[in-house]
Write a structure and sequence with these properties.
Blueprint (H helix, E strand, L loop, with lengths): L10 E5 L2 E8 L4 E6 L9 H15 L20
Antiparallel strand pairs: 1-2, 2-3
Length: about 80
């Protein structure tokens, strides 16, 4: 893991067009701003995990109900 020390209004450039800027620092939270091209998805970790879980669920093979054999009926004329 690469660790940075940044102060308010300082930024980190991740790749061309992706910037992460420290907007506010409080006692127990840091507010970050992310600038990225529209085709680069940016999510909080918990949202990203939900998306991954839904994608896995959607890609899983469908579970079809097991077909049970039809009950055998006695012929109507048999005694």
């Amino acid at each position: 893991m690469l660790v940075f020390t940044r102060r308010r209004n300082e930024a980190i450039i991740v790749a061309d067009g992706i910037e992460i800027r420290v907007l506010r620092v409080s006692k127990d939270a840091v507010r970050l701003g992310v600038t990225a091209p529209g085709d680069v998805p940016v999510h909080r970790q918990e949202v990203y995990e939900q998306i991954r879980q839904e994608n896995r669920r959607a890609a899983a093979p469908a579970r079809l109900p097991i077909a049970l054999p039809l009950s055998v009926r006695p012929s109507e004329g048999a005694s």
